[in-house]
Please model this.
Amino acid sequence: MFNQINTAELDQVRKRGIKFLCGKLPNFFSSASSDASFSMFNREIEDLLIKNVKRTLSDCDAEEFIMFVRLLASLSSMNTLQGRQELVAIIMEQSELGKKFNSDDLERIMILVSCIQQAIPLFSKNVNSNKYVLMFIDNVLGIFDQIADEGIRFEILKSFADLCSFFTWSSTGTDSLSDKQIDAVYNLLLNYLPKPPVEAQVSQETEDKNDDTEVRFNFSYVECLMYTFHALAKCKQDFLGSPDNKDKLKDFRLRLQYFAKGTKNYIKELRNTLINSSLNAKTDADNEQNKIRRVALKVTTNIDALIKDLFHNPPAYKTSITLSWKSSQSLEAQGVQQPNKQNKRSLSVSNDSADSDCSARKKPERGIYQPPTGKYSTQNSSNDKRRTFSYDNQKTRSRLM
Model:
């Protein structure tokens, strides 16, 4: 089968072969795992399958890559600690993260983002991301400012933040964080934490110019970068806590204080807008705008929590947050599952129309009470659009990308 897949001249034949393998083999291994006499044979087949998948991954598209990853994840040998580490290595090998990236090679960058998305569920406290975080800093962050597409830039930062969620402390070896590497993350964060305007005014002329210039806060970028810096600095606390870095810490806090003020203003504005718009929402467009505002509120509250942590003397690294895109994904998943939950728990809902529906419904022969179903079911539509949130002169500006 793999020979046909690798030598097929028609893409349609190749895809059918891959879909057949990825659809049938998980059920085969699942049923075979219950037979103790088959366990040794099963292991040999899995090893052969892993070997052939590795060979095929070098020439597959995004859809085929995801199918193969799911196939490997279904194997019993991949559900052990060693197996998860091996699967992460297989996925990340396709990203070529160990080589320098070029800002013009957007296809390769998106392959990297896709690989990280597939690998994230496999990381844990026992399977850390240290190796890949350090390679990301060395080979990707350096070209970040050269990438023109803001949507891709945002995806890069989100992927980096996801990786840093599983970064653990290491004082020795190749997985240890160097001063140069954390300084690269810190400097990139400073690019989006402007200095207070007062410090930039060196003359009346520049003061007048600044009065006419809008200061823009890119909250979406800052959430990603501040989270990554917080996660990495936790493992290297002398970066800001050392007496030799007093001037660096002073400048950092001035920027944080200024950004915190804009963040609090935006949070206040968002909350007031949400209260008013929720009461007056009449159309789907109104509800969609409220969803966007809720995500923006999560972004800003995350930043506010991290800033408070960094304002400690010395900076503390105790706050734990859920990144905004993780929260929105969780809410959308709950929205999809909500109808079933409500059907099971509809006894807790009281409504006159529901009572009339119950009386009109024919009673079952055994006299078992059947709660109303479907009456109160709601399903939130998911929004796959990438969003970034910015704030200009105390006026809300959200941009869909």
